Structure formats: structure tokens, C-alpha cells
Amino acid sequence: MDLFVECGRALVADIAGEPECLVITAPGTVRHLAEDLPLSCVTGVTTSRVARKQGFAGRLTAAAVAQDAVDGALVSALGMFEQGYYDQHGFGTGGYEHWISFVPASLKVTVKPRVPQRITPNDWEAVHAARLQRRRGHGACNLLPPATTRAEMLWAKNGFGLGYAGDEDGKFSHLFWCDAKDDREHGPYTVQWMVYNSREEFLELLALMKNLGDQVFSLRMREPAGIQLQDLISQPFRHYDLTEKGKYECRVSAHAYWQMRICDLAGCLERTHLPHGGVRFNLQLTDPIERFLDAGAPWRGCGGEYVVTLGKSSGAERGRAEGLPTLKATVNAFTRLWLGVLSATALSYTDDLEAPPELLVALDEVLRLPAPHPDWDF
Question: Same structural domain for residues 193 and 213?
Fold first, then answer.
């Protein structure tokens, strides 16, 4: 926990001289298509029993987001304990992450893996460097302080890793890190993260997992972005039925547990390059975080009126242009639209987003993005 606190900014609220609420953030990056944008990641919000329902967590979280925005973060992200609370800070819910539990021996991988290297928490610096250089897709996040990886490795119960060093520099090229919980001989084990840069590296790591199958009955992992892991599992439905409600249950579950929000609309759109046509419109953007911040705060969210251009060159300017259609949205909904979590039409059904039908159709066409996946839990 000390390492997590030291990784970035820590804000504390006290009552009668006793610290009762803590919010910590860490700097990072988030990828939008091929661009990496500065990210502030809220890695912890903790309130004591004494300070519950006093508004400390809400105000302190807003203050942390605001300070990081002033320091240049274009986007903020967090992992939520429940949907709804951080909506009041302008955070929009991300897409579903698939977690799949399977019998490692059932993997349909024919690769014969080389003898791997053992990875321990003592390797945290090299592991962090490998994580930063891993294959990343749209929405992928990096937390930059090396101590974040060290803390996560120490946090794992009976954690262990296996991997390989590159031929040229001796640094880790591909690896995975596991949580063995109670160190049971037969599992279940949870793969906390994978690092790879090519098809060959990905398959070699799966082959290593398959080799654990002589004794390990269950392995659980987040499905990698762009991969349908069921393609590589033999008789998945048979295993689902045979293990249902058991200790080594095989199943697939989907959870949307991360949220993001735009902190600087013009900054984000300046680095947004969309290959599918273009559209220009007025945007009336509301930002609920304002009510948590002092009137004189140097950053009070990004609400207001904008003229927005989306296309190969995108941008946002304060103001309003006559003759353009108008999109009305909260920053929560617009962030989800910008990330490609859902289409404009879908968001108009379920979120705070409203526009004329012709503008919704145009936005659906322009914002055809891959599903965003942070690939780094926080």
C-alpha cells in the first residue's frame, strides 16, 4: 500500500486531526487508436467508517482529478466499486471485459514452448518495462511509475510468473503473472496480466499455460483485446456443463468495471484522428464534477458550448456556429462516444446524449472504433 501511495498524488481529508479519507492517483497514458494521451488514473479511494456520508470522498476525488487536469492529464480513469457513484464526477462506464475460466489442458495449442524463466517480485523493474512495451490496442492504458507493477506483484497471493527474455537485450519479451491465492495444487489460478508483442509470443505463453494442466484444473484470465479465446479451447460447452457451480467451474463472465472521463475536450480531440469520413456540429456539454469544486478552482471540468469537428483532423473550439446541428451530452456520455464504447444512436437510448437523427447517423459512421480495452486493471 505504501508503494501505491508513493506512485503519484495522494490527498487526505482529516477530522479532528485524524486522516479519515484518502484519494491517490498515478500518471499514465491511454491510447486512442494510434495516439497516446496523458492519463490520470485514480488508483484508490478510501474512507473510514467515521467519515462515511460526510462528502469527503466525493470532494477529494474531484480535487484529485482537477489537480491532475491542471498538470496536463487529458483523460482520467478509475475502477468503480459500483456503477453510479463516479457518474457524478463525469465518469462514463467502459465496455465489457470478458473473464474466462478454463481447463488449461483443454487449450488447442500445438506450439512446443521453450523452457521459461521464473519471474518473482524481485524482477519488478524488468517486468514493468516489458508491460510498458507490450502490444497495445485502442483504449490500452499504461501506468507509468514502476512501483505500480511492484505493488501489484506484491499484492498477489502466492504470485508467480513465467516468461522469456529477448535474444538481443536480455529484457523480458513476453510473460504472464499469476495469483495462486491459497497455493492450491490444482488451482484455480488467475492470470493477472499477459505481455506479448506477436502471434508467436502469444501462442508460446498459452502453451506454457497448457503445460500447467497436468496438475492445475482451472485457470482464469481476462480475454486479451482482439482475441476470442474460445477459438483455442477444446469442447468449451462440455466443460461449462460438467463444472457448473463447482470449485473449478469453467465459465465466461462479462463485467464493465472501469470508467473514464475527458478532462480537456480540445486536447483530446486535437489528438483524435478518425479514418471514416468527417462531421461538424455544435456541442452542448455538461460536466457534473463542477458542483464538487470551489468556485475559484483553476479547473472546473470541461462543460460548455463547443463547435466540434470529427475526422482525420479533429478539434473543439469554444462557441457556437449557426446552421450546424447540435449534440447535447454529459461529459460521461461524450467520453463513451469518443472511446467507441457505444454508438451515438445506442447512447441516445441509454445515456444522457441527444441529437437530431441525421447527426446520430453521421456520428455512427465516423466513430467506427475498435472496442476499447485498458489491458491494465486499476
Answer: yes
Q: Which residues pair with 124 in a beta bridge?
A: none
How far is CA 180 from its chain centroid? Answer: 23
How many domains are contained in the chain? 3
Residues 218 and 270 in one domain: no
Amino acid at 286: T
Peptide bond into 188 cis (omega under 30): yes
Q: Which of 330, 333, 336, 327 is nearest to 354 (CA)?
A: 327
Q: What share of the chain is helix, strand, coil (3-state, %, to 5)?
A: 30, 30, 40
pTM for the whole structure: 0.94
What pLDDT digit, counting tens, does each position of 313-340 carry?
999 999 999 999 999 999 999 999 999 9
Q: What is the CA radius of gyration of the chain?
A: 22
Give the whole-angstrom CA distance, residue 22 versus residue 171.
36
User: Cβ(72)–Cβ(255) under 8 Å?
Assistant: no
Give yes or no: residues 214 and 275 share one domain.
no
Asked whether the CA dihedral 346, 98, 177, 227 is positive or negative, the reply is: negative
- In terms of Cα–Cα distance, which of 134, 153, 131, 127 is closest to 143? 131
